Amino acid sequence: MTSIRSVLMLAVSLVLGVMASQAQTLRTDLSRALVPLDEVVAGGPAPDGIPAIDRPAFVPPGTADGWLRPKEPVLALDINGDARAYPLQILMWHEIVNDTVGDKPVVVTYCPLCNSGLVFERVVNGVTLGFGTSGKLYKSDLVMYDRQSHSLWSQMEGQAIVGERTGVRLTLVPANTIAFDDWKATYPGGKVLSRETGHQRRYGMNPYESYDEASRRPFHFEGRPDGRWPPKERVVGISLGGTDRA
Q: Would you give the distance in Å from CA 188 to the centre of its chain?
């Protein structure tokens, strides 16, 4: 029993060592921030511990039929007639895809804690940014970092909240989360993000399944939840002309 435990502990140590060696050390300018720094909290993984997809590969819809169920959600994007589907079963393991769609550099993002799939242009003042996962959360939401300045970005707001680029906003690109069959019917000639990501993950399994229980408090959420709806109720959010609605 002791030897089995020792082997398991050694295996865990080796895995953690590999993750640590691959992790990025962030050099964020903490003197510039829009939010209190103590509200940007460690989520568990190190920077890039959840690896972004930088060289996405795609397959035809018919090929994806072998592993995507008809009603399974995909994040649908169409830019200049270049239609692509990003299955949430892949995004929940990577959270960020740096891609170029319809000749436009974009970052496709998904926060599994917030169920928020958002796409942004990633050209800022003529510079094409590359994004990674910071390992941090802000109000229980994914915090990205750009690899050029190591500024931290709130995924929900598409805005840099700490670092050199503090205050800069990314341009939002329209995208919809829809069922795979509905996307396929609309875009039969489109492309689907492949499971061949360069990483070994259990695609199709939800590592956050227990988190979806309505009674559970959001992870690393500070403050008092709004009692009008369950804390993790899914809503459509609209921000227009300074007015916000759910």
A: 26
Give the chain's end-to-end CA distance (angstroms, integer).
54
Sequence letter at residue 58: F
DSSP 41-89: EE-SSPTTSSPPBSS--EE-HHHHTTTS-TT-EEEEEEETTEEEEEEHH
Segment (H or E) for 161 = strand 159-162
Nearest Cα to Cα of residue 107 among 138, 75, 80, 136: 75
How many domains are there within the chain? Answer: 1
- Is residue 207 one of the residues assigned to a domain? no
Band the pLDDT of 198: cuts 50, 70, 90. Answer: very high
Domain extent for 94: 24-200
pTM comes to 0.86
Question: According to the model, what pLDDT value does residue 6 have?
Answer: 34
138: three-class secondary structure by DSSP: strand
